[in-house]
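Methods — Computational structure assignment.
A single polypeptide chain was analysed. Its primary sequence is given first, followed by the predicted tertiary structure written as structure tokens.
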Amino acid sequence: MVRMKNVTKVYDSSGTVALDGVDMMIEEGEFVFLVGPSGSGKTTLMKLITGEVRADSGKVIVNDFDMNKIRRRKLPKVRRTLGVIFQDYRLIENMNVYDNVAFAMRVVGASGREISRRVPYVLELVGLEGREKRLPSELSGGEQQRVAIARALVNSPRMIVADEPTGNLDPVRSLELMLLFEKINEMGTTILVVTHEKELVNALSKRVISIDGGHVISDGMDGYYGYEIE
């Protein structure tokens, strides 16, 4: 769950007002698209959710944690409730598929037994069974993104945050990825996808939050609207 109330963020170095009085609520179990033009404030919203930056004013609650009051040493607790997926995958090149996913569990202190049980299950869920021993360089772009999704899922997060996850994929693979997110959402995980791909958003008919100029300008279930993309 994410709750933002009257959130403002200004970057001191440039004086840029990234967010100006933003109110937003994402409930447990929702599937939400966040859309907006370049410089609209999407990235700042993501960074507030993951704890990379703090709001200058207003309230930010993420999975029951108050992000304005939480101490830095406790941020890992918040991040264990989140699975973050990036456009550039961020896989460890000298680790095979299995070890890339298992690494996320080792970081949080999971036992060998837990890892050997959970990793194969998650790899099967994302359609990577049989590819456990392959290196990232031996995979297609779509397969690499599925490894990134498996890594984000393996610690059973309450929420997945995906930043332009289809940016390096062709339309067919992009749709496959969104359908995978939909499947994960149906299993109970909250999904937030930041994207600029109008066709994908329209294809799934989920809730869409549009942001521009640091303001939420529309929020609803009627597909992709609020601004026009080039």
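Note: The radius of gyration is 18 Å.
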